[in-house]
Amino acid sequence: MAAVTQSYSSSAASGRQRVNGADLYYEQTGRGKHGVLLLPGALGSTRTDFGPQLKSLDRERFTVVGWDPRGYGRSRPPDRDFPPDFYERDAADAVDLMKALGFGRFSLLGWSDGGISALIAAAGHSDLIRKMVVWGSNAFITQQDLDLYDAVRDVSKWSARMRQPLEDVYGAEAFADTWEAWVDGVAQFIKRPAGNICMELLPLITCPTLIIHGEKDPMVPTLHAQYLHKHIQGSRLHLMPEGKHNLHLRFPDEFNKLVENFLED
């Protein structure tokens, strides 16, 4: 059973839903017929990753659900771990959460790690996924990617502005430990042929897909967006010249309009 509490407006609710043995925290806004699930990035949560989307996506056209994947944010305990199939686990949790909340077909908005899980979910559930938007995501890992992750492994070197939201969620020590575990978790993919995460699944994606990429993204080189675009049939690629990794937070009005137009197209 989901424990539901009314939140910051009459059309918003938050609660916990038991899914695949985990109690997953979620927030839901809007009353539109088109269900949309927001999938956060590494260590991400509903509030840290998608505030402008929960607040401003059209509530008459969409019902928007944000969630904290198991081990992240308010979906603890348990603490997060990173087995070889952690992206697949998040994808299964995401789909099963929406089914448990009563959604038949729905769309996915996946950022960074959440985009990887969205790709996996869309490949495996073409009957359920209406449309998908991903940004800051990749289907494989290169040594260059690992070098970028290793450069930010030590969170004490981050700016206070970047650290604070995550320290508020996890506490300073748990945040540092979980982030290191994430870096080690993604490093395991470099041992696979071509650094594969989900390359073989991309041709199985049949839903309309929009790939957004910030051309100044310091974490995910443009080649990853180009690869997704090439291998997801019929996908669209939209480049944002001034966009960085968190382009949906830096340019929320532009991003939200892009997404609304695509979902309604």
TrEMBL record:
SUPFAM superfamilies: alpha/beta-Hydrolases. Keywords: Hydrolase. InterPro entries: AB_hydrolase_1, AB_hydrolase_fold. Gene3D superfamilies: alpha/beta hydrolase. One of its GO terms (molecular function) is serine hydrolase activity. It comes from the Eukaryota. Residues 36-257 form the AB hydrolase-1 domain. It holds the Pfam family Abhydrolase_6. This is Putative valacyclovir hydrolase. It comes from Scophthalmus maximus. The lineage of its organism: Eukaryota, Metazoa, Chordata, Craniata, Vertebrata.
